[in-house]
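User: Hey, quick favor. My workstation is busy. Could you predict this chain's structure for me?
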Amino acid sequence: MALALPSVARIGLTCWFGLVGLGTAAAQAQQPPRPGSAATVVAPGPDVPDPSLSPECRVPGSKLYTLAKLRAVKKALREQRAIHVLSLGSTSGGLGAVTYPVKLESALEQSLPDVTVDVDSRGLPGEITYGATERVRNIVAEIEPDLVVWQVGSNDALARVDVEAFASSLADTIDWIKSHDIDVVLVDPQYTASLAQDDYYNSFVRAIQRVAAEKQVPLVLRFEAMRYLALHAKGDGLLGSGFRLADLGQRCMAEHVTRAITVSLLQPDVTGTTPPPAASVAAGKPSP
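Assistant: No problem, here it is.
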C-alpha cells in the first residue's frame, strides 16, 4: 500500500546516505532542488505539524517522538543489506495487505531509498510486558532482527500491574535486546479521552518515557500524538472519544513509527552530543 509519506523524511535520509557513500542516494542529494519539490519545503519547528506526514496524521515533532541513536540499523545501511524489523505488540499481528506491519514495511521502504526492509510481526494480544519477558526474548532470538519496534504498556496499565515492576521488567528486556546489538524503538500506549483521566494509566505513559530516556532508545509518543490529533480534529465531533480515534491512531502509527526511525537515523554517532534541532532534522541536514 502506497503511503503519502515522506517527502522531507526522504530528503533527510538521502543526505544521510550521502554521508555513508551510497552512490544512488548521494547522487540524488547532489541534485539541485526543483521549484515545488520536496527540497523547497520549509522546515517546521518542533511545535509545527510535520508536513512530511499525511494531512490526517500530522503532529509536531515535540508531540511525536523522542530520539536516540540506532546503531544496528545504521550498520545494516552501511553494509547495504536488508533491514530486518521485528514488530511486537497487540496490533502487530494479523493478515492481509493493509495491516500495520505491512504499512510499516511500505512506509520504511519509501523513506529509505534503495533499501529493502523486511518486517516480521508477532502479536502479543492481551499479554502484559511484566509477564512476557521470556516470550519476548525467545521471539527476538528466533528472528534475530536489526530493530525491534515494541508497543508497550496498554495491557499492563489496564491490568493494573505494579508500575515500577513493569518499568523494571521493560528496562531489563531492553538491556538484553541491546546487548545482542539489536536496536529498540518503543511505542507508548494509546490515548482516549477517558483513559487520559486515569492517573494510573498516565503513570505508565510517564514510566515508559522515563525508561526510554534512561536506556537511550527512541520513543514514539503515541499517547501525545493521538491526543493532539483528537484536540485538533476539525468538524468531527466523534473523534477523541472512542472508535474513530483508535482507527485513526492505527492508520497513522506506521507513519509515526517510520518518522521516529528515520529522524533517529540522523542522530550523530559521537558520544555525549545532544539531539539536533527539529528544524535541521526536518530539513534533512544531518548533524555534524
